[in-house]
Amino acid sequence: MKVGIMGGTFDPIHNGHLVTAEAVRDAIDLDEVLFIPSARPPHKRDKNVTSPEHRLAMTVLATCSHPNFRVSTIEIMRTGPSYAVDTIDALKKEFGGGTEFYFILGADAALELSTWHHAQELIEKCTFIAATRQGTDIDIATVEAQFGEVGHGHILRVETPKIEISSTDIREKIKSGHSIKYLVPDSVEAYIFKEQLYYDDR
Questions:
Q1: Does some domain include residue 151?
Q2: Is residue 136 part of a domain?
Q3: Percent of the chain with pLDDT over 70
Q4: Which of 31, 97, 122, 129 could potentially form a cystine with 85 if both were Cys, beta carbons 3.0 to 4.6 Å apart?
Q5: Mind listing the pLDDT tens digit for each residue in 37-70?
Q6: CA-to-CA distance for 177 and 174, rounded, in angstroms?
Q7: Rg, C-alpha atoms of the chain
Q8: Over 80: is that where the pLDDT of 135 sits?
Q9: Which long-range contacts (CB under 8 A, 24 or more apart) does 160-164 make?
Q10: Does residue 96 register a pLDDT over 80?
Q11: Taking the model in full, what pTM does it have?
């Protein structure tokens, strides 16, 4: 199997996440894309993050209608910080040795890949997909060079539609009383309003 990994805080998940995942799935011919909400993002330790239960529920609602999208609780159920290398190790045990994993991330994150926890080990265990917006580019060779010989061929570029949506902007719109229609799936919008998420600073 060829499995894509779409990790993130998903606070909340939005249509930009879904469009990117589908574009990569189609381009790489993935069997499925696994959405993995992080429990304790190491890079957001000093920020308020909505409870894992709410973020998981929204991710399930956003992806349940797609036959090739699936949600994993692997990071939410694990104690401690959510490191990608630990997640890959666990998924390899779960899926078996015949599965290839493709870690989907934005171009900006790809440029900072060498700073990730156990990055050298991680690059040996999966292929990274740098999802770039149409009209922009990323020097894949420069990123690969940071990892030496093992980096060659382990970072690919896929051009995805340019959609200017961010979770931060969505939270701000809700706090300010503005519409988020068409920024998130209808089911996610309904859940946010039902649970009264993002109406204050939490």
A1: yes
A2: yes
A3: 93
A4: 122
A5: 998 655 555 568 999 999 999 999 999 999 999 9
A6: 5
A7: 17
A8: no
A9: 160/19, 160/20, 160/23, 160/24, 160/131, 160/132, 160/133, 160/134, 161/19, 161/20, 161/23, 161/133, 161/134, 162/133, 162/134, 162/135, 163/15, 163/16, 163/19, 163/20, 164/16
A10: yes
A11: 0.91
Confidence at residue 43, expressed as pLDDT on a 0 to 100 scale: 54
What CATH number should be reported for the domain holding residue 60? Answer: 3.40.50.620
H/E element, 11:
none
Q: What total of structural domains would you count in the chain?
A: 1
Tokens at 38, concatenated: 């992080």
Main-chain dihedrals φ then ψ at residue 97, nearest 5 degrees: -70, -15
**Which run of H or of E encompasses 72?**
none
**Rounded (10°) angle between helices 52-63 and 15-28:** 50
Residue 185 lies in a domain: no
- The residue segments making up the domain with residue 64 are 2-162
What is d(CA 152, CA 21) in angstroms, rounded to the nearest whole number?
Answer: 23
- Give, as one character, the DSSP assignment of residue 184: B
